[in-house]
Amino acid sequence: MALDDTSHRYAIPDWPEGERPRERLMAEGVRRLTTAELLAIILRTGSRGRSAVDLARRLLQDLKGLVGLEAADPATLAEATGVGPAKIAQIKAALEMGRRLLAEVEQGSHPQITSSQDVLALCAPRLRGLQHERCEILFLSGGNDVLALETLSEGSLTESPVYVRTIVDRANRHHAAAAILVHNHPSGHAHPSAGDRALTEELVHAGDLLRIPLLDHVIIGGRDHYSFADHGLIAEYRQRSRRPA
To answer: What top-level class would CATH report for the domain 110-242?
Structure first.
């Protein structure tokens, strides 16, 4: 008779001590563990014949890795075998702590922005996978070092006059020489909307007048990004603003 695929599994406390994720973490260091083993430590227990490691592997497989796990809302996670409210809270809390840690490290290191790839490396971990739009802004020094990274708004980009006033106020506070706008598209598609284009053009014009130039607007999608500067649109908008009326 065929055996059920979970009938041979046993609980982590029954494993040899050298194979248990928590014990291995303490003895060998966190970097020696697989992603599934790290997730298993967060989950703490398995269910329905699955160990915590088995459950972690199943979640990562079904949701296409950590990016999918971050993007999944509680209702989606609740549909997964063995994942109840407590485990969902543990997963989401751990992912958010990782996001905030990265933000603190990046803000404290004052990285230099030389391309849209630098913006992506700094902001994608914060924005990719969110279920709503978040608009952030990088304030830069004259040498393009990041002076500050701040959230401008949560939601769609619609109130451009508010953005101009807020950007100018915060730029002056940080003594910034330039700015870069960044926001995400929860749909996963990074291509700019008509509203994104109109707002960007207005901010380029306002920034030039106020001598706080907008160097780029980067949209972060699910697995790609769109840079207005890379596509020549920042230069195009700047040229338009300089034409005589």
So the answer is: alpha beta
pLDDT tens digits, one per residue of 195-240: 899 999 999 999 999 899 999 999 999 889 999 999 999 999 999 8
Question: Could you count the other beta carbons within 10 Å of the beta carbon of residue 144?
Answer: 16
201-217 in b/e form (b: 16+ CB < 10 A) is: bbbbbbbeeeebbbbbb
Give the domain ranges of the chain: 12-100, 110-242
pTM of the model: 0.61
